[in-house]
Design goal:
By secondary structure, the chain is of the alpha+beta class. A hairpin with a 2-residue loop joins β1 and β2.
Length: about 100
């Protein structure tokens, strides 16, 4: 994702696919111009996600986001999450 609009669209799509999403922030670390946030998301797959139709399954996934700040605003960011683990919970990768 590049830019705040695309980032916002990604968040909107995720929240549409998991409308009961609960995000828990586990850690926030700050070092100079970098902020790292580690968290856990839980929610029910009730909307299309990555092209996959709703399954009604409840999923839990973890993530880490790192932002570089300038003048108090995020100007770069990186997200790490285990997409395969999330899709496995939806049984997208199995013979289920």
């Amino acid at each position: 994702m590049v830019g705040p609009e695309e980032y916002g669209q990604g968040v909107l799509g995720y929240r549409t696919a998991f409308p009961d999403l609960v995000t828990t922030v586990e850690d926030v670390l700050v070092d100079a111009d970098r902020v790292a946030v580690r968290g856990t998301d839980c929610g029910t797959h009730l909307g299309t996600f990555m092209g996959y139709p709703p399954t009604g399954r409840f999923v839990t996934t973890t993530w880490i986001e790192i932002f570089r700040l300038e003048a108090g605003k995020a100007v770069e960011g990186w997200v790490e999450t285990d997409v395969k683990q999330l899709l496995d919970q939806l049984a997208v990768n199995s013979a289920d």
